[in-house]
Amino acid sequence: MDHDVYDVEDASGVYNGMPAPGLEGMAAWQKSRHSNSQGSCVEFARLPGGEVAVRNSRFPEGPALVYTRAEIEAMLLGIKDGEFDHLIAG
Length: 90
Prior knowledge:
With about 90 residues, the chain is α+β, with helices and mostly antiparallel strands. It has one domain (about 20-85). The chain has 1 helix and 5 strands. It has one helix at about 70-80; strands at about 20, 30, 40-45, 50-55, 65. A hairpin with a 5-residue loop joins strand 3 (about 40-45) and strand 4. It holds the Pfam family DUF397. This is Regulator.
């Protein structure tokens, strides 16, 4: 396998950092309605095993980061609470 030993591949062949096209047929990518017209956005896809894949829409052939539901939940709760607002502050 070409990926890091730290990446755990599940029975479906999904692993963190895999090329996003490898998820074809498993992933229905979704981006925010707030994304800009240049396509600069983060896209998410729920995978059959319950994990969530994330990719950069500017590089759809690039890597997909794969997170557990718990990891995504923690991130979304932090976003809703404003914990990451400083990342976009001017």
